[in-house]
Amino acid sequence: MPLLYAGIDEAGYGPLLGPLCVGCAMFVLPEVREPALADVRPPCLWRALAPAVCRTTTDRRHRIAIEDSKKLKGAKDAVGHPLRHLERGVSAFASACPGAPNAWESDAALLAALGASPTPPPIGDAWHSETLPLPVGNYAPALRIAASMLRTTLMKCNMSCLELRVRAIDAREFNAQAAQISNKATINFMAAMRHVERVRVAAVEHGIDAWIALDRQGGRTSYREPLQTSFPEARIRIIDESDALSRYRLEFPAIGGGATPAHGITISFELGGEGRNLPIALASMAAKFTRELHMRRMNAFFAHHVAELKPTAGYVQDGRRWMEQVGPAARTLGIPDEALVRTR
């Protein structure tokens, strides 16, 4: 039977400003395997999709670089825009999802496709009221060519990129959750579990098994208890709990008189998982690029109100510098610090 293979990863866990973004990439593979063999990992998608994707940013065949987002974002003084590789990869795979256009002309369109659109004012924050154009680091025709190359390769492999989504938790929501939760790592885990639930529902709808890979959450090696809290109806079997990985099989009973059949999913937390699972690397890229688009809007908005404002990526030291410059204007505009600054 086919397999739904998904990866989940985050970007922006540590910064002072901007959203925590948790991404999820889902693929439907033609791989035939017995769902009960939860210790059999999915095939390597870098190898399967090699005509269109690679790991390096200097590929002579001009394939799409898919790798951990930290390795793909360029330095500020590098040749070319620092976001060009993130943009190319995220744009291509988002365009490969069902019903998507072949290119993205604004951040609003891409964020909407990723499910990461900010709440508009007056409920949301003023810096999200204006959309900004895309692309930021590529030529639009080149992005269309990359998207077409990827679609062709996926079709030849009888695979599909079912969905690429990002959960963007802005400072307001982050602070509200942090006020109720003692450990901020739990905020990240809860966002990841929302993606897991979405993958589970998609697998049931398609009538196939699901394998979900996540990067290791901090230094933790045991996840049975938080998984049971997230999915109390599931029967959880520990496949492996070691320094390298923690893997579990979750079996769900039939409900609604069989309207939702009994089914199972495999969840694998892996140390350095983005290096072995293309869906994790792609989720990392989508999360990082989404965060960059949110920060781009924030910097552009306040640049209209603060003369000679140097943009920030939101990390602690530079974020404090930025807040010292922006604070007076923000207060004049009626924007409280908790809408900008995370409490943890």
Describe the structure.
The protein has helices at 45-48, 69-72, 84-96, 107-114, 140-156, 171-178, 184-206, 224-230, 278-303, 316-332, and strands spanning 3-11, 20-29, 53-54, 64-65, 160-169, 209-215, 235-241, 245-252, 263-270. It has 344 residues and is an alpha/beta fold. The strands form 2 sheets. Strands 5-2-1-6-9-8-7 form a 7-stranded mixed β-sheet, with helices on both faces. Strands 3-4 form a two-stranded parallel ribbon. A hairpin with a 3-residue loop joins β7 (235-241) and β8 (245-252). α3 (84-96) packs across α5 (140-156) and α3 packs across α9. The longest helix is centred in the last third of the chain and has 26 residues, at 278-303. The protein is globular.
Global outline? globular
Number of helices: 10
Q: What strand order characterises the main sheet?
A: 5-2-1-6-9-8-7
How confident is the prediction overall: mean pLDDT?
Answer: 92
SSE string:
EEHEEHHHHEHHEHEEEHH
Question: What structural class is derived from the secondary structure elements?
Answer: alpha/beta
Give a quick precis of the structure.
Helices cover 37% and strands 18% of the residues. It has 10 helices and 9 strands. The longest helix is centred in the C-terminal third of the chain and has 26 residues, at 278-303.
Structure keywords:
single chain; 344 residues; alpha/beta; seven-stranded mixed beta sheet; two-stranded parallel ribbon; 10 helices; 37% helix; 18% strand
How is the secondary structure organized here?
Blueprint: E1 3-11, E2 20-29, H1 45-48, E3 53-54, E4 64-65, H2 69-72, H3 84-96, H4 107-114, H5 140-156, E5 160-169, H6 171-178, H7 184-206, E6 209-215, H8 224-230, E7 235-241, E8 245-252, E9 263-270, H9 278-303, H10 316-332
Parallel strand pairs: 1-6, 3-4, 6-9
Antiparallel strand pairs: 1-2, 2-5, 7-8, 8-9
